[in-house]
Amino acid sequence: MICQNLTYLEYLILESCPTISDSGLTGEFENYSDSITPTPLSNLKYLKDLMLSSNSLITNQGCIKAIRFQKLTNLSLIACRGLILNNDFEMELKKQNPCLRNFKTSN
Fold it and tell me: InterPro entries this protein is in (predicted)?
């Protein structure tokens, strides 16, 4: 609902949410065939700050697919145990988010 109704949102903090997974980021809900049309996180065209720290169910694949914002300047993926942090992952996210200046990660 956030991605569908709050499209002018600039700041989104979804930290320490134990049920947030890739499908929540991408809008592809696997178990809800009767749900409304899936809306990906990237629908938030004005997003500048995205804080997803301490969400262990998100993966590299989900982040690469979902985190695509023209105006994103700050991204936090600290303590996301499902991520494999490497240079390729970081470079891909920076390429998909051209304004990204502050990218915080840790294991």
Answer: LRR_dom_sf
pTM: 0.89
Rounded-to-integer distance, Cα 85 and Cα 105, Å: 8
Return the structure tokens found at 77. 């993926």
- Who contacts 78 (Cβ-Cβ below 8 Å, separation ≥6)? 53, 54, 104, 105, 106
Listed in sequence order, the residues at least 6 apart from 24 whose beta carbon sits closer than 8 Å to its beta carbon are: none
Q: Which is more confidently placed, 80 or 3?
A: 80
Q: Could you please report the per-residue DSSP string of 32-68?
A: -TTSPPP--GGG-TT--EEE-TT-TB--HHHHHHH--
